[in-house]
Amino acid sequence: MAITAQHLISDIREIASSGGNPSDFKISDEQILYWVEQTRSQLISQSLAKRDDINDSWIQYIPCVELGLVDESECCSAPIGCQVLKSLKKIPSTIDTWKDNWIVSVRTMDGSIIPKSNPFKSRYQNYNKFSGKSKSWYLKDDYLYIINETFLELVEVAGLFETPSDLKRFADCSGNTCFNTDSPYPISLTLATQVTDIIIKTKVAPFMQFDNSGSNEINDQTSQQRAAEKQANQ
């Protein structure tokens, strides 16, 4: 069974609520999900920094990224009048590491892979006799650009995204959202265990200690007030 964001949220809430005062854990699901995504991003970033292999379970797919024509001068130093394709929406940020981005692949709807380029290379690609007419993609200001192609309307983008829930801004080709808390979450079982353990130790435990110390302080103050009132009435 696939791991979902709701599974992770429920596991963390169940562990946090298993103490003596389960009703004291009043953190929202949104806050717990933020902790999950923050911790997941940090752990994957550390793994990638060590040049570890990418786990397939970390990858998310945006099946239908819509494209539109724009003037090429908008994205790079090119004569006005030349056109390139640009995504209608910004592509979510990928895991932050030594690499410029962690877009794993960009494919056409028939499955053809579009090679990666960058804004600098794209300026001179037209002058290359071997690749001058080959389409390629790059990111600029979080938008996806595809050069030497003007007929595509949709592409599939796969990547290691920093905040998986950002994909809720996108829909698949049937109109279903690319992320909700009940959809498969981009995490392995091993990583999910690590994320849960870290959150319990670094987020939940300090919160519960603070909450209990605050409650005890209030109870102490109340007891002192009652004692003072009882003494005054004698």
The overall pLDDT, averaged over residues, is: 85
Flag low-confidence runs: 214-224
Major sheet description: 6 strands, antiparallel
The span between the termini is 67 Å
Shape estimate: elongated
Radius of gyration: 25 Å
Order of helices and strands: HHEEEHEEEH
Describe the structure.
With 234 residues, this protein is an alpha+beta fold. The protein folds into two domains: 5-54 and 188-218, no CATH class; 60-169, no CATH class. It has helices spanning 5-16, 29-49, 119-125, 189-233, and strands at 60-71, 83-87, 103-107, 136-140, 143-147, 154-159. The chain has a six-stranded antiparallel sheet with strand order 3-6-1-2-5-4, with no helix packed on it. Strand 4 and strand 5 form a beta hairpin. It is elongated and about 65 Å long. The model is unreliable at 214-224 (pLDDT under 50).
Task: Please specify the SSE layout and strand pairing.
Elements: H1 5-16, H2 29-49, E1 60-71, E2 83-87, E3 103-107, H3 119-125, E4 136-140, E5 143-147, E6 154-159, H4 189-233
Antiparallel strand pairs: 1-2, 1-6, 2-5, 3-6, 4-5
In short:
It contains four helices and six strands. It has 234 residues and is of the alpha+beta class.
